[in-house]
Amino acid sequence: MKKSIPIIAVLMFCLAACSPAVTAIPEAVTATPKDVEISPNASIFSHPFPNHTAYAPGSILPNHRTQAQLDDDVRAFYDYWKAAYVIQDGTDAMGRPFYRIAFGKNAEAQANTVSEGQGFGMLILPVMAGYDPEAQEIFDGLWLFARSHPSEMDARLMDWNIVKKEGNASAFDGDADMALGLLLADAQWGSQGEINYKTEADALLAGILESTIGPDSRLPMLGDWTDAQGNPHNQYTPRSSDFMLVNFRAYGKAAGDPVWNEVVTNSQKVIFNLQETYSPKTGLLPDFIVMSGEDHTPAPAPAYFLESENDGKFYYNAGRDPWRIGADALLNNDEASRAAAQKISLWAESTTGGEPHAFRAGYDLDGKPLENSDYFTTFFVAPLGVAAMTSPDQQDWLNSVYEAVYQTHEDYYADTVTLLCLITMTSNAWMP
Q1: What is the pLDDT of residues 15-59, one digit of tens each?
Q2: 150 with 157: CB under 8 angstroms?
Q3: What distance in Å separates the CA atoms of residue 185 and residue 126, rounded to the nearest whole number?
Q4: CATH number at residue 67
Q5: What is the pLDDT, as a whole number, of residue 45?
């Protein structure tokens, strides 16, 4: 459906700008979560917070604060985040509460939710079980809310935007994080309770694979609205922040399907090709990528490819890359991801003189700051902390990054990414 493309572009630009502006979109789709499989047995509890995961050999943690202090930092930031963005929004026909993640703090943003936020929330809640007694109820409500707003393209996926009116198609990252969240929930609570998390994850993964993974490229597509053979958006035009290597490895383990190994391998090939060709000194990746020619050589997307003039720059999508790639090195001991994360991390420390507050809000791939980027935001800096954990010689830089972000509060996008990075930086991220 071609009409989905400009709508998607508008939302993705809004996410990048952290603005709740909404354009005209189709009437809301109402659906009950009747396809959620229910099991009557009691749930299981197995990974209480704090988890204190042993990361890959050679990894470092912030060492200027005790482990108990690091855990308390996460608790405090989580309490703030939950109060600011977690909203109980009605119930289903069975009286079960819906929960959603608000798109911001002002009234307009509080009324809006995007699938990305639901996915982020579903990553956070299983990890915080053991601290928050409401974690499972909220997690279940996030999932039930997602199922009540299916994409019109593939009903196994979620609409990207939920407000008075809503979008009619998916965005890759939201569904991808929801799938990992369901696997985390299965590992945390088991699937013998009210919702069979494993069965739900299997169904969601089938939709992700069929509708949002390129059949030939084996790379993530922008959403289920993307025509694999289309122009200009197709299976060879990924978003770099959708190279969610931790997710893909977890899918492969859960599904026993080697296709996810292909997605990991192909994603890493693109990352390393871009770093070698376009950012050999910085390691930075562009928000969007176009792959052309018979060999599908990757290159930064042109301006306004989907969202803004900065589509080919390190901007408000790619800012998540150091976290996504670094987490794969930490949790899966992957040497290739470690090298990619270290390249970004070493440059970041060098370009700022070791002062995280000097890191700008967007760069050309060669390290030149973008116009109007002269401000600090935790959105860009918190992921650098995860990348720094892969580099033993960057202990002081890691400590400085942590200090810059752990008590800094901004808005939905920066705060939620920061919380996810704090969970990782304190050794509390884990694989299902």
Answers
A1: 433 433 333 322 322 233 334 443 333 345 789 999 999 999 999
A2: yes
A3: 6
A4: 1.50.10.10
A5: 73
Whether 18 and 176 have beta carbons less than 8 Å apart is answered as: no
Residue 210 lies in a domain: yes
Measure the CA angle with vertex 2, ends 309 and 207; round to 5°.
100
Compute CA 245 distance to the chain's CA centroid, rounded to the nearest angstrom.
Answer: 11
Is 70 inside a domain boundary? yes
Backbone angles phi, psi at 172, to 5 degrees: -55, -45
Active site residue 173: yes
Q: How many CB atoms lie within 10 A of CB 302?
A: 12
Active site residue 262: no
Q: Is residue 430 part of a domain?
A: no
Q: Tell me whether residue 431 is in a domain.
A: no
Q: In this structure, are residues 225 and 169 in contact, taking their beta carbons and an 8 Å threshold?
A: yes
Query: Could you list the residue range(s) of the whole structural domain that residue 261 is in?
Result: 4-425
Give me the sign of the Cα torsion angle 80, 328, 285, 116.
negative
The secondary element (H helix, E strand) that includes residue 70 is: helix 67-85
Identity of residue 426:
T
Q: Which of 73, 116, 140, 242 is catalytic?
A: 116
Which residues does 415 contact at the CB level (< 8 Å), separation at least 6?
80, 81, 84, 85, 378, 409
C-alpha–C-alpha distance, residues 105 and 107, integer Å: 7
- Measure the CA–CA gap between 428 and 197, rounded to whole angstroms: 21
| Number of compact structural domains in the chain | 1
- Distance, CA of 20 to CA of 87 (rounded, Å): 16
Of 173, 287, 307, 321, which one is the catalytic site residue? Answer: 173
Q: Which residues of the chain have pLDDT under 70?
A: 1-44, 164-167
Q: Which of 347, 373, 379 is nearest to 361 (CA)?
A: 373
AA identity, residue 328: D
- For 99-140, the DSSP string reads EEE-S-SSHHHHT-EEHHHHHHHHHHHHHHTTT-TTHHHHHH
- Before 57, cis peptide (omega within 30)? no
322 and 345 Cβ atoms separated by less than 8 Å = yes
